[in-house]
Design brief:
The structure holds two protein chains of two kinds. By secondary structure, chain A is α/β, with parallel strands linked by helices. Chain A has eleven helices and ten strands. In chain A, a hairpin with a 2-residue loop joins strand 1 and strand 2. In chain A, helix 3 packs parallel to helix 6, helix 5 crosses helix 6 and helix 7 runs parallel beside helix 8. Chain A is globular, with a radius of gyration of 19 Å. By secondary structure, chain B is mainly α. The two termini of chain B are 37 Å apart. A two-stranded antiparallel ribbon of chain B has the order 1-2. A two-stranded antiparallel sheet of chain B has the order 3-4. Chain A binds chain B through residues 50, 52, 71-73, 76-77, 81-82, 84, 88-93, 97, 100-107, 109-111, 114-115, 117, 121, 124-125, 128, 139-142, 144-147, 151, 153, 167-168, 171-172, 188, 192, 195, and chain B through 11, 13-16, 19-20, 22-23, 228, 231-232, 235-240, 242-243, 246-247, 249-258, 264, 268, 484, 486-487, 490.
């Protein structure tokens, strides 16, 4: 069953065609990796799915319903959440607040109810706090304890990446879009992230679309790999199929003639 | 491999030594100060707010001085304004430079519904909700076209709105509907609207110039809104506003409707300004458009309060308004201003001059330099030391034997003022012992200019001094007195 489906999506910035005629789908419970050289259109793909840009042509469907014309927050409310390649945490809020803030779309209490502290609002606040603690505990002790009340800017780079994932899971997401989750991490942390992505599916029940450059991670986690170059899908299949595809090798390393020159 | 999963020394996935050993690494300041500091951080914030409310409520009871109560009322109105601005600027991070227009709009709104202007005299319980609702609506309308703007673009649009408000109300004495109807006086033009009704509820009314009553009205409004804001701060909406301030795109993508949140922030800020406006109009019994113009400085003062206290901090709203407004009032008196001037110089020297022996050398040098100049001037130009020091007491009589006080200081004072500005500029270019040496005549020149020229212009010097106080405090604590330090880029 297809959770996310992109039907011949195109997107141009001025005269530059960033994505052209792209067809892609992610099945329920699947982990799909998107690979490709820099500038291949991977992050633009994420921006199209989350509604930051609208596609010029084509349609994007989530669980069979079109996402076109929806604001990003509405798309998030329908179950798509993402992390960012260049981390975009709420740096001056605490670790716990970062996660609590993301519960906005599936909670209700407005200003009036917050001021009056109605029983419903207090219950909801307790639930939000509980949700945040639960999402943070997913990362073992890394984001626990005193760190809850620390500002997010005090976290190390790797912990910031973890916090972004925790924040994304606190929305009511079914589909997680992870934009280079292992970027800037050391080998141990990279290994841990790969393990974590697997656990996100097993324990969290998420469907995951991930952009990743680290081929060990891609190999370890992917059910299916999609390779993009210049906005065009050049290969799709298992990791081994894609990794040995001549067009993928060419996109990364150039043609033999060009490489030996 | 030596580090398998069974190796007890291997770093286990998810286990963080740093977190586990955090409490042992934590260092606390020793002594009594450390104990006080730790205990204070445990006190919940509302306790401080309550303490402030009680202290403020006692003020009119312990003093019958009408002036103090009036200043207290003004300070409370400023606090209300800063509290509203704290929502738009402090929480949502929207630079709203048209903010005081909401204050003016509401003051005029109250005046139109409760004065002989149109012969309307509504009950206060009806006027306040109507005026506040209208101001909230105006906040919505201003935010609607500007909700997609950020930063300086939003600032320019809202500044334009503020000036638009002023221009319309300043020239509103001949208003006709597109020229079809006869011109009608709506706002009273530059003469404003006088003879505004006092607050009256079911026939019971506050007496004319009864600032004490308005003080309590403003205090109750402020305390109620302060606690309300405290609750909102820690609610779903408060978190969303702060997320929006931190990163609008990330907030939107984490499910927060950024545009709607901006509208709500604008409208809430406007509503609080509106409430303050009604109290202002009734307490002062007249409103004039020029009070809300950019050149009146009101906007800058409210911003100064917010930033000094720490944007985003509710305690900062109280402290900021207190420090700025009380400073402005204290500095009306030349004697007080003189003490503030010398304290500021001394404090800056003590804070900035290291090592201590340089400080001692500069102070001793300045003292010696002064006596030498005084001796020379009294020998060659006796009229140059015949003036009076601005203050009496020990400081005043001491100064009379130290600083040159010409009997007619106008021209020489003006020249010296220009020289002082130049000297300070040169001072910033110098380094090392040359700078310390140059500081001696500069300090003396500063005292000379103050005693001979600045002290007789309190209306100007108080603004200069408040500016200097702001610079000094913001240098010491860029995040504001009670603000938390922020990072923009890491």
């Amino acid at each position: 069953m297809k959770l996310l489906e992109l039907r011949s999506i195109s997107k141009s910035f001025g005269g530059l065609k960033v994505i052209s005629e792209l067809n892609l789908h992610v099945d329920e419970g699947e982990i799909v990796s998107v690979i490709g050289p820099n500038g291949a259109g991977k992050t633009t793909l994420f921006n199209l799915v989350t509604g930051v840009y609208g596609p010029d042509e084509g349609d994007i469907l989530l669980g069979g319903e079109s996402l076109l014309g929806l604001d990003p927050h509405e798309i998030t409310a329908r179950g798509v959440a993402r992390t960012f390649q260049t981390l975009r945490l709420f740096l001056n809020m605490t670790v716990k607040e970062n996660v609590m803030a993301a519960a906005f779309s599936h909670t209700r209490a407005g200003i009036l109810r917050s001021v009056l502290r109605t029983p419903g609002m207090r219950r909801e606040e307790r639930d939000i706090a509980h949700l945040a603690e639960q999402k943070l505990s997913f990362f073992g002790q890394r984001l626990m304890g005193y760190r809850w009340d620390q500002p997010a800017f005090s976290l190390s780079y790797a912990n910031r990446r973890r916090l972004e994932i925790a924040r994304a899971t606190a929305t009511s997401a079914r589909l997680l879009l992870l934009d280079e989750p292992a970027a800037g991490m050391n080998p141990v942390e990279t290994h841990e992230i790969a393990e974590l992505i697997g656990r996100l599916r097993e324990e969290g029940g998420y469907t995951i679309l991930v952009i990743e450059h680290d081929m060990h991670v891609v190999e370890g986690i992917s059910d299916r790999v999609v390779a993009l170059d210049h906005g065009v899908k050049i290969a799709e299949g298992t990791f081994d199929q894609v990794a040995t595809d001549p067009r993928v090798v060419e996109a990364y390393l150039g043609t033999k003639a060009a490489a030996t020159k | 491999m030596a580090t398998g999963p069974t190796d007890p020394n291997a770093p286990r996935v998810g286990v963080d030594e740093w977190v586990a050993s955090h409490e042992q690494r934590r260092t606390y300041r020793g002594g009594v100060l450390g104990v006080v500091e730790r205990e204070l951080t445990r006190v919940p914030h509302p306790a401080f707010y309550l303490a402030f409310g009680i202290a403020a409520a006692i003020v009119p009871a312990v003093t019958s001085d009408g002036y103090i109560i009036k200043v207290g009322l003004d300070t409370l109105l400023y606090m209300l304004l800063a509290l509203g601005l704290n929502i738009t600027v402090g929480y949502a991070g929207l630079l709203d430079l048209g903010y005081v227009a909401f204050y003016g709009f509401a003051a005029y709104g109250y005046a139109m519904l409760a004065s002989p202007k149109f012969g309307v005299h509504w009950d206060t319980l009806a006027v306040i909700p109507v005026v506040v609702a209208a101001t909230v609506l105006l906040g919505f309308l201003v935010a609607l076209p500007s909700r997609r703007l950020v930063g300086d673009y939003l600032a320019i649009v809202t500044l334009f709105f503020g000036e638009l408000f002023f221009t319309v109300y300043q020239n509103g004495e001949h208003v006709s509907l597109l020229g079809f109807t006869a011109a009608k006086d709506v706002t009273g033009g530059p003469n404003g609207i006088p003879n505004i009704d006092q607050f009256n509820v079911f026939g019971a009314r506050i007496g004319e110039l009864n600032y004490k009553a308005y003080f309590y009205v403003a205090l109750v409004f402020f305390m109620v809104l302060l606690f309300a804001m405290y609750l909102v701060d820690r609610s779903r909406t408060g978190r969303a506003w702060k997320s929006l301030r931190e990163d609008p795109l990330a907030a939107e993508l984490m499910g927060m409707p950024v545009n709607r949140l901006k509208l709500i922030a604008f409208a809430c800020g406007a509503g609080i300004a509106g409430l303050a406006g009604t109290v202002f109009a009734a307490a002062n019994t007249a409103v004039f458009a020029s009070e809300y113009d950019f050149t009146s400085g009101l906007l800058i003062i409210v911003y100064a309060m917010l930033i000094l206290g720490g944007a985003g901090s509710l305690g900062g709203v109280i402290i900021g308004a207190l420090v700025v407004n009380v400073s402005l009032e204290v500095l009306r008196d030349p004697g007080h201003a003189t003490w503030v001037f010398y304290t500021l110089i001394a404090a800056t020297l003590v804070a900035r001059m290291r090592p201590w022996r340089w400080l001692a050398a500069v102070i001793a040098g300045t003292a010696g330099f002064g006596f030498a100049v005084h001796a020379i001037v009294s020998a060659v130009w006796p009229r140059g030391v015949h003036g009076q020091a601005a203050i009496g007491g020990v400081l005043g009589s001491g100064l009379r034997h130290w600083v040159v006080l010409p009997s007619n200081p106008m021209t020489i004072g003006n020249v010296a003022f220009v020289c002082l500005v130049l000297a300070v500029l040169v001072l910033t270019l110098l380094k090392g012992w040359v700078q310390k040496l140059a500081m001696i005549p500069t300090l003396y020149l500063a005292v000379f200019v103050w005693e001979n020229r600045l002290v007789i212009e309190p209306s100007i010097t108080r603004l200069i001094l408040v500016g200097v106080i702001l610079i000094v405090l913001m240098n010491a604590r860029p995040q504001g007195l009670l603000g938390t330090s922020r990072v923009e880029i890491v």
